[in-house]
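Aggregate trends can hide what the representation actually does to any particular protein. In the encoding step, the backbone of a single protein was reduced to a row of integers, each denoting a local shape. The record that follows shows the chain in one-letter code together with its fold in token form.

***
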Amino acid sequence: MKFSIIVPVYNRIDEVSDLLESLDKQTVKNFELVLVEDGSTQPCDIVVEQYKDSFPIQYYYKENEGRSIARNYGMERATGDYFIFFDSDCVIPHDYFEKLERQSAVMPVDCFGGPDAAHESFSTTQKAINYSMTSFLTTGGIRGGKISLEKFTPRTFNMGFSRGVYEKVGGYREMFSEDIDMSTRIRNAGFSIGLYPDQYVYHKRRVDFKKFFRQVYVFGMSRITLKLLYPGSMKAVHLLPAMFVIGSLVLILLAIFVSWYWILPLVAYLVAIFLTALISTRSFVIAAKSVPASIIQLGGYGLGFIKAYVTKIMLGRGRDAEEEILIRKGK
């Protein structure tokens, strides 16, 4: 068995059903699935049972301790020599492992990551959120884009590394942005990391803007945690959402109290987002929804970043009560 797919899950029966269906359709099945149920009140064992004869599955149910601990639990029991990580809300293209086998032969690396895409079946809101998370105009291409403002960092919705990496680096930490932390530790240990740009997955992400805001707010807070762990890891691209929040507020106040002309730079930027989304998706509805999705993506991340910067760096506090609550809810 070459690949061990490791997926933590918490109350996501429908998502797991879609994931397993997509794995069942793989043109090459050189893998096992290690599915770790992290204390779900709605376990997906019935869904797993439907695919037990299609490909090897190890299914475990354990008490709720967090997704990182669940991934580590899966790695301890995996039999493959290369671990693949997907989120439970991913759908895998039918030729993923066929392409992975070819790509890893051409460009072998100790750790790889791939981008994500929106499936045609996704809602227009999901597609707009996907655009806001992958567009160069909003994230600087740091999530696997062809053009990037930062060195590529694999993330657990589409990531893999060798057993040798695990044996030397260890497992994931239970924290926000645990995948960025893991990728940093892998790179610091001297292992090779590469982007496989055609090795994409369909990532459902959040299905509404409220959940999306909470997700990116957490991302912003975790960037400060990563800065404290790795002092040299903060790059200019990580400051852009906070600059967007502050800059937008300044422009709005100037437009209200000085001249409406001050709002034009912000309007121009949002128009640019709309036009690039329209060209990319060829849908007026998705392009229109991409504007508020991008505002939420930048604003939520920026607010989380600013809040954590003030509490953790300026005031010198550790993890606060809000962060503890978000960690417990962050399944």
